[in-house]
Specification:
heterodimer, A: 398 residues, alpha/beta, Peroxisomal Thiolase, Chain A, domain 1, nine-stranded mixed sheet, two-stranded antiparallel sheet, 16% strand, globular, B: 139 residues, mainly beta, OB fold (Dihydrolipoamide Acetyltransferase, E2P), five-stranded antiparallel sheet, 39% strand
Chain lengths: 398, 139
C-alpha cells in the first residue's frame, strides 16, 4: 500500500531555541517563544495555526515530577498559552516521538482536519540525577526489572549492543568513528551544546565505561531545548516565503513479541526493524539508493549501526566496518552524511530534532555555511528501528 | 550501600510468580487457551491474544544460554554495589522466553555468548527473593 498523503504536505518554516544544559527560563516559556518564531518564519500569523501535534514525554527514568509547561510541553498546553483554540490538537503516545508527531500532522492536513499544524518537541534536563531513582518498591511494569538492578536506558541498549559485538566479531573501538563524526558536525553548529567542541578518537577511547560495552560518550547529553516546525499543504506551502520540504512517507515499528520492559533483543531489532523499512520505502516510493541525506538517530551510538543496516545502507553485521572505513564521513565525497546535522551526540538530547532539522535546512536550501550541494531526498529517524519512527523528506515532489 | 534494593510488589497477575520465587522456585505463566509460556504474565496472552488466558503457573527447569550481558558500573537505583553483571538468558524451557537477571559469579567471571547458566535466587527480605543466574560448571 502506498501513502495517499505522499508529497501532499510540506514543512513551511521552523525555529529552534539554543540547546543548553539548563535554560534560564521555564521550558514552557522557551516553547512559546520558539513556536511564535516558527510561525513567523513560515510567513503566518498565530491565528492561522489550527492544528498542534507533539509528544510530551520526558525521557528520564529518575524520580522527577512531570509537570506540563515545566518539564514537558504538550500541544494542548502550547495552544492554550498561545491563546488559540485549534481545530486539532493531538499528542503522540508511541516511541519515535518526533516522526510520530509529524505523521499525526500529515494525516490532519491531508484529511483536511487542519490547515496549518505546529509540530514541536520540548526537551528538559531536570535538576538532580537524570536517571537516578530512589524507589524502594518496584510495582507494575518495574517489578520485572528494577529488583534485579535492570533499570534505565543504558542497560536497555547495552545488552543488544554487546549481542551485536559478539555476533559479528566487532570491537567497541569502531564506534569512535560515530562519536567523532557527530561531534565534528555538532561543533560547527552555532546552537549546539557542543558548538566549537569536536571530539578526538583518543577521548572517545579513554571515556569511562558505564555499562560495558557502553561508555559515557556513547550517550547524548541531557539538555533544555525546543524546536518547532510549521506544516501545511503542498499547495499552500508553495505560496509561502520558504522553499517547501515535502513529506514523502513515514513508517514506525511495533514489535509483537512479549518482552519484559526495556528488553530489546538484537533479533527483535532486526526483524521488526526490517518491517519498518519495508513500510517506509513503500510509503515514500523510493529506496535507500535514492536517499542522499539519511539522518540516522544516535541518542545511543549503537542505534546508528542498526539504522544503517535495517534501512539497507550497508549489509547486516557490517556497519562497524562501514563506519571505520569512512563510510559516514560527511566531508568525504564517498561518505554517507548520516550525522551531518550533528545528531544527538553532537547537539544534545533533542530526541530526533537534529535529524529532522538537518533534513529541513539542507532540503530547503537554508543551511547557510553548511549547505550541501545537490541534496534532494533526506530521511530522519528517531529511537530504534523496531519501535521508533522514520520520515522521508524531499524538495521536488514525485 | 546502606539503602535497601527495591523489592517487587506482587499484583493480581504476578503474585504466583513472586510466591514461588520466595521459595526459590522459578515458575512461568502457561496460557490455558493456547498452551504457550510467556513472561511477564500480561492481562492478555501475548502469544494467542486471548483476553482471558487463565494462566497456570508451572515450575520450569531454569537452565538456559547467555545471549548477551553488560557490566553495570553505575547504578541508578539504591542498594546495588557496582560493578555487577546482568545477563540476558534464553531459557531451555522455551527459547521464546527471555529472562534478565544478575549473574552471581561476579564481574570478573569470563563470559561468552552461549555460556550455560542456571537460575539462582537472591533473598532481599523475609518472604522476598528475586531470580538471578549462576554459571553452570562443566564437569
Amino acid at each position: 500500500m502506498t501513502g495517499g498523503y505522499r508529497n501532499r504536505v510540506a514543512i513551511a518554516g521552523y525555529a529552534q531555541s539554543d540547546v543548553v544544559r539548563h535554560a534560564d527560563r521555564p521550558l514552557g516559556a522557551l516553547a512559546l517563544e520558539t513556536a511564535r518564531r516558527a510561525i513567523a518564519d513560515a510567513g503566518l500569523r498565530p491565528d492561522q495555526i489550527d492544528g498542534f501535534t507533539s509528544s510530551a514525554m520526558l525521557p528520564a527514568a529518575g524520580s522527577h515530577a512531570v509537570e506540563d509547561g515545566i518539564s514537558t510541553v504538550s500541544s494542548v498546553w502550547l495552544a492554550e498559552h498561545l491563546g488559540l483554540n485549534p481545530r486539532f490538537a493531538s499528542g503522540f503516545q508511541g516511541h519515535g516521538q518526533l516522526p510520530g508527531s509529524v505523521a499525526l500532522a500529515v494525516n490532519a492536513i491531508a484529511s483536511g482536519a487542519a490547515d496549518h499544524v505546529l509540530v514541536h518537541r520540548a526537551l528538559h534536563n531536570p535538576s538532580g540525577r537524570y536517571h537516578g531513582n530512589t524507589m524502594t518498591e518496584a510495582a507494575g511494569a518495574w517489578q520485572w526489572t528494577a529488583p534485579q538492578g535492570y533499570f534505565g536506558p543504558l542497560a536497555m541498549i547495552g545488552l543488544p549492543y554487546n549481542e551485536y559485538l559478539m555476533r559479528f566479531g566487532a570491537g567497541r573501538e569502531s564506534m569512535a568513528a560515530v562519536a567523532v563524526e557527530a561531534r565534528k558536525n555538532g561543533a560547527r553548529i552555532p546552537w549546539s551544546y557542543w558548538h566549537g567542541r569536536p571530539l578526538a578518537r583518543e577521548q572517545y577511547l579513554d571515556a569511562p565505561l558505564v555499562a560495558d560495552p557502553i561508555c559515557r560518550l556513547d550517550c547524548d547529553i541531557p539538555v533544555d531545548g525546543v524546536a518547532a516546525f510549521v506544516l501545511t499543504s503542498a499547495e499552500r506551502a508553495r505560496d509561502l516565503p520558504n522553499r517547501p520540504v515535502y513529506v514523502a512517507g513515514y513508517a514506525a515499528g511495533s514489535p509483537t513479541r512479549p518482552r519484559v520492559p526495556l528488553h530489546w533483543p538484537l533479533d527483535d531489532l532486526y526483524e521488526t526493524g526490517a518491517e519498518t523499512a519495508r513500510r517506509l520505502w513503500a510509503a515514500a516510493g523510493v529506496g535507500p539508493a535514492d536517499v542522499d541525506l539519511p539522518q540516522l538517530y544516535d541518542g545511543f551510538s549503537p542505534l546508528v549501526y542498526l539504522w544503517l543496516e535495517v534501512l539497507g545502507f550497508c549489509p547486516v553485521g557490517e556497519a562497524h566496518r562501514f563506519v571505520q572505513d569512512g563510510g559516514i564521513d560527511s566531508d568525504s565525497p564517498s561518505g554517507l552524511p548520516v550525522l551531518s546535522g550533528g545528531g544527538a551526540l553532537g547537539n544534545g538530547r533533542m530526541h530526533g530534532v537534529p535529524q529532522m532539522l538537518e533534513c529541513y535546512l539542507q532540503l530547503s536550501g537554508r543551511a547557510g555555511a553548511r549547505q550541501r550541494a545537490g541534496v534532494t531526498i533526506g530521511l530522519a529517524c528517531h529511537a530504534s528501528p523496531h519501535l521508533g519512527g522514520v520520515v522521508v523528506y524531499g524538495n521536488e515532489p514525485w | 550501600m546502606s539503602a535497601a534494593r527495591p523489592v517487587p510488589v506482587p499484583d493480581e497477575r504476578s503474585a504466583p510468580y513472586w510466591k514461588a520465587a520466595a521459595q526459590h522456585r522459578l515458575v512461568l505463566a502457561r496460557c490455558s487457551r493456547c498452551g504457550e509460556l510467556s513472561h511477564p504474565p500480561d492481562v492478555v496472552c501475548p502469544r494467542c491474544h486471548h483476553p482471558d488466558p487463565g494462566f497456570v503457573f508451572e515450575e520450569v527447569g531454569g537452565g538456559g544460554a547467555v545471549r548477551a550481558w553488560i557490566v553495570v558500573r553505575q547504578s541508578f537505583l539504591l542498594g546495588f554495589d557496582v560493578p555487577f553483571v546482568l545477563v540476558d538468558v534464553a531459557l531451555d524451557d522455551d527459547d521464546g522466553v527471555r529472562l534478565i537477571g544478575r549473574l552471581l559469579d561476579g564481574p570478573d567471571a569470563p563470559l561468552a555468548c552461549g555460556d550455560r547458566v542456571r537460575v539462582a535466587f537472591e533473598d532481599l527480605a523475609p518472604g522476598v527473593a528475586v531470580p538471578a543466574f549462576t554459571l553452570e560448571r562443566t564437569p
